[in-house]
């Protein structure tokens, strides 16, 4: 039987996200920043450090994929209580932006797996090798996957930055409580 979200810090009448949703949001944001930072800096590492960074990036990516799938399940199973803030158009726009971000994150995870596999390299995760014999591509296909993975990362970062700017604008300019619902430590 599923646990009621009341057990996770959400009370009747709250317009705040529950504690699990907030934890998943900030964990996602943190992992995305770490993964992006590693991806754009490992070109400057020497060979052994680059190999280690890629293995760490891959392991975090696999763990992140599981976290993202759980986050989508959690979002589907328990939605925020209370009326959505703002107009219907704003709520639709915000929902659309979240759908785009979730879609891009899932695509980025899939491209990360395929990037490794298309180059005939297994994913090395927590001491185990995961391989896919049917995912191999020629050199041109492998390059396309790598390029899409890179463009996807940059697109996610631009949209996440815009997401943060809008949240800060709504908090400091509109003063509508949007940021407090996700980050209750902000007054």
Descriptors for this entry?
187 residues, mainly alpha, Fumarate Reductase Cytochrome B subunit, two-stranded antiparallel ribbon, 5 helices, elongated, disordered N terminus
Name of the top-level CATH class: Mainly Alpha
CATH architecture group name: Up-down Bundle
* Average residue pLDDT: 83
Report the uncertain regions. Answer: 1-14
From the alpha carbons, calculate the radius of gyration and give it in angstroms: 19 Å
* Biggest sheet: strand arrangement: 1-2
Following the backbone from N to C, one meets helices and strands in this order, namely HHHEEHH
Q: Indicate how many domains the architecture comprises.
A: 1
The geometry reads as elongated
Please, what is the oligomeric state? single chain
Report what the structure shows.
With 187 residues, the chain is mainly alpha-helical. It has a single domain, classed as Up-down Bundle (Fumarate Reductase Cytochrome B subunit). 67% of the residues lie in helices and 3% in strands. The protein has five helices and two strands, in the order αααββαα. A two-stranded antiparallel ribbon has the order 1-2. The longest helix is centred in the last third of the chain and has 36 residues, at 139-174. It is elongated, with a radius of gyration of 19 Å. Mean pLDDT is 83; it is low at 1-14. Pfam families: Ni_hydr_CYTB.
